[in-house]
Amino acid sequence: MEYVVAAVILLVVLVAGGIGLVVPRMRRRQLPPAETGGGTTTLEREPEAPSLQVPAEVDEGLPPLIEEKPAEPEAPALDKPEPTAGRLVRLRARLSRSQNIFGRGLLSVLSRDHLDEDAWEEIEDSLISADVGVEATQVIVARLRERVRVLGSRTVSEVREQLTEELVAALDPELDRSLKTTPHDGRPAVMLVVGVNGAGKTTTCGKIGRVLIADGRTVLFGAADTFRAAAADQIQTWGERVGAETVRGPEGGDPASVAFDAVKRGIDTGIDTVVIDTAGRLQNKVGLMDELGKVKRVVEKHGPVDETLLVLDATTGQNGLEQARVFTEVVDVTGVVLTKLDGTAKGGIVIAVQRKLGIPVKLVGLGEGPDDLAPFEPAAFVEALLGSDA
Ligand SMILES: Nc1nc2c(ncn2[C@@H]2O[C@H](COP(=O)(O)OP(=O)(O)OP(=O)(O)O)[C@@H](O)[C@H]2O)c(=O)[nH]1
């Protein structure tokens, strides 16, 4: 009996002890997790892994936990310059608008029944006022008079046709007007662009770059106009639009060194043509003209310059010719770009320029737009000069 009592007591004790051990554990499990901060320094604490699983209902409106990689900025679309072939014909309206008075004046004289001395004088005056130049006008009119006399030309269209032929002949259509832009073995072709202030050099460099790129060449600009920071920005903007790099130097820096670096870069990167813009300068500033000579000499350490283009503003008329002459002495100009022909009724200046300088007009500027530059074609030009109804 005693054994039974002892066994019951033992059992009760064991059961009570078991309950005492189990209940606190269960309670502890229901408690919120203990603060982990106490006792652990911030440095020692394991960083909490960010919860990537956000319940659907809270997800809305919250920024994503993992930020999406920003898309690579898209390269700006490059301009597609107009093809160069036939540009003069397309831009003809620009030219004939400003030449109308000239064409109409000639038409009214040519339509007279009889071309007397007064009529010939009027024809001469028309040509001179269109800036053809006195000397060239006299030659053209003398030849035309002779043809009219010998051939007995009667109708306006006959005389007009003969005048057209004489004007074209005065423009020396056989001259080589191609731009020398073909690269040499391992070296780009180099083009130097010179002229007085505001003639349109920087704009012309940009337009030429576009022409070359349209024709499938690679181009690099040298911003050797270090006087005017805006000029370097200007040419760089032209380049960015068509995908041409620009090499520039510090403002007021040595233009010869910028030009040298530009050609060097062109060689290193295998460019076809390097176009170098220079600062505008007046032909009577000896120091500046010497500087231009130096630019050319320094560039030629890499090899000869292929093309030296003189940019002339057609609206300056005969006055521009003296400026032009000095440039030809300093840098051996190989071609003329006559700009702003859209803004003058004196397109005859092309004839005067070629006669006076003995250098072919290779390009004409017919507006401020990026593609308003055309290869010069004597016949198309004379047609535009005389107007369709002359
Ligand atoms: N209408 C017309 N404007 C032109 C033509 N070519 C250039 N221009 C304008 O002439 C102005 C002068 O052009 P720029 O290219 O800055 O002249 P620049 O010779 O480089 O000037 P500098 O560096 O100061 O000597 C600009 O407003 C051009 O848009 C053209 O063929 N027709």
Automatic annotation (TrEMBL):
Gene3D superfamilies per the UniProt record, alphabetical: P-loop containing nucleotide triphosphate hydrolases, Signal recognition particle SRP54, nucleotide-binding domain
Question: Per UniProt, which keywords does this protein have?
Answer: Cell membrane, Cytoplasm, GTP-binding, Hydrolase, Membrane, Nucleotide-binding, Receptor
What ranges does the record give for the region Disordered, renumbered to this chain? 31-56
**Residue intervals of the SRP54-type proteins GTP-binding domain:** 360-373
Record field: catalytic activity:
GTP + H2O = GDP + phosphate + H(+)
Tell me where in or outside the cell this protein is found: Cell membrane; Cytoplasm
Q: Which PROSITE patterns match?
A: SRP54 (PS00300)
- Sites binding GTP sit at 195-202, 277-281, 339-342
Q: Does the keyword Methyltransferase apply?
A: no
- What role does it play? Involved in targeting and insertion of nascent membrane proteins into the cytoplasmic membrane. Acts as a receptor for the complex formed by the signal recognition particle (SRP) and the ribosome-nascent chain (RNC).
Family matches, as NCBIfam families: ftsY
- State the name under which the record lists this protein: Signal recognition particle receptor FtsY
